[in-house]
């Protein structure tokens, strides 16, 4: 009985001392260092590095816009490589960031495609790009590959895509990569 | 003693300006970064596909697989003719569209299984290696959509003809690495694309 009382008194004293120490430590911290931001800095730096890395991993980007340019989803696992990019949205055709044609009612006007299929302005732009590519490849002794990357909206009719493909073939671009949103990781 | 004096003299680096910069940079990057993964589907034009075929062994047979996408559904044919002659004679497509909730739906799953059971599986053994393939154009398909077909339907049709269905895992012997993943890869510095994995009809040509 006596022993038990002694132990509890001892334990209480130790607990009191610990609490005092804790309080003192807490008070000391408040006085010395207003904010411990080093660990926060570390976390933010890691996030920043991750974001910068993921930002620059794809050779080309496809700016998606609702009701304008939403590329289809697919199970394809193939990755893109750098080539001439053609974006076909519901309102325009853009080649390498330059708007070439305005689209009305999901079709190309007869002025823009006088013979029904070949889109004149698009062909001129692709011819220019091909000539530039050939020139630059001659310097580095590589061959012109004639590949084009096409990012088209899910809702556009096939005829529009077909017109772009036929025009590109006329400009000697013979192989195409269709942009898709991957539904499987990889 | 000297050490203590030195420590007392040192002041902590002021991290607040760097913190401010990071706090601005991170939201900016989060807003502008694309978290969706963009991939590609590789397609040829029919003209390029035909030129390649001519160069190949003339003694070999040609499958000549063609999928026509119409408003009614899929018409599938080979060099021998329609794959579903009875339905074609009745003016029906091999795989008709279904209407649900006021919307027309193409049956991609059914197309994939149809291609697999009718055309891929029966010819798989004779075309396992590229060198000894019975068909000169094994793995090739020409897809011909009608003008008003939506682009989304074309992409899903390409998926259905390229990928093997799950049942292939149990059916087919000698599948590379046992998975049903099919992809194109262009090794750095090389001109040609390489086909990786197990595919059904991955070499698609679009249009007429």
Description:
The complex is a heterodimer of chains A (186) and B (208). With 186 residues, chain A is α/β, with parallel strands linked by helices. Helices cover 44% and strands 17% of the residues of chain A. A 6-stranded mixed beta sheet of chain A has the order 1-7-6-3-4-5, with helices on one face. In chain A, strand 6, helix 4 and strand 7 form a beta-alpha-beta unit. The longest helix of chain A has 31 residues, at 2-32. Chain A is elongated, with a radius of gyration of 32 Å. The mean pLDDT of chain A is 83. With 208 residues, chain B is of the alpha/beta class. Helices cover 35% and strands 22% of the residues of chain B. Chain B has 7 helices and 11 strands. In chain B, strand 3 and strand 4 (81-82) form a beta hairpin. The longest helix of chain B is centred in the N-terminal third of the chain and has 17 residues, at 16-32. Chains A and B meet through helix 2, strand 2, helix 4 and strand 7 of A and helix 2, strand 1, helix 6 and strand 9 of B.
